[in-house]
Every structure is written in structure tokens, then in C-alpha cells.
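Re: that backbone. C-alpha cells:
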């Protein structure tokens, strides 16, 4: 089985995830993820929280956010 090298849809405690941004990055690193995007709902706070955190060598972040909108009267992300 091929290893997963990227996860571009994760959530931290800054929205509805369970881990602090730093802990989310460290868990992803431990799982072998090379590229990670924290896509919290309507928030980029995770990236602000990580601004002074030294990331492990071998993982890089791609900025992301999951925006709430409405389409035909229904909320969607």
C-alpha cells in the first residue's frame, strides 16, 4: 500500500477539531505526512498559533480555510 504523503483537509481546535494546531502538525509528521493543510471552518487562527512554532524538518504547511457559504438556501462548506 502506498503511504499517504499529504493531507489537505484537517481541522484543529480552532474550529471543530480535537487537537491544538501544534499537536495536529506533530501527529501528521508522526504519520509520515509531508504536506499538511489546516482547513478550519472560517478561521485562520491555527496559522497564527503556529507562527512562532518550529515545524519538524520534512513537513510543510499549505495555507487553507474552509469557508461557510449558502447555496440555494442551504449552508455548505
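Recovered sequence:
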Amino acid at each position: 500500500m502506498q503511504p499517504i504523503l499529504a493531507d489537505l483537509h484537517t481541522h484543529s481546535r480552532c474550529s471543530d477539531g480535537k487537537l491544538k494546531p501544534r499537536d495536529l502538525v506533530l501527529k501528521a509528521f508522526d504519520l509520515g505526512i509531508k504536506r499538511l493543510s489546516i482547513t478550519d471552518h472560517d478561521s485562520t487562527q491555527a496559522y497564527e498559533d503556529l507562527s512562532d512554532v518550529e515545524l519538524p524538518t520534512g513537513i510543510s504547511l499549505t495555507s487553507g480555510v474552509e469557508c461557510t457559504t449558502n447555496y440555494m438556501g442551504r449552508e455548505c462548506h
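The first strand starts at residue 6 and ends at 10. The chain has a mean pLDDT of 93.
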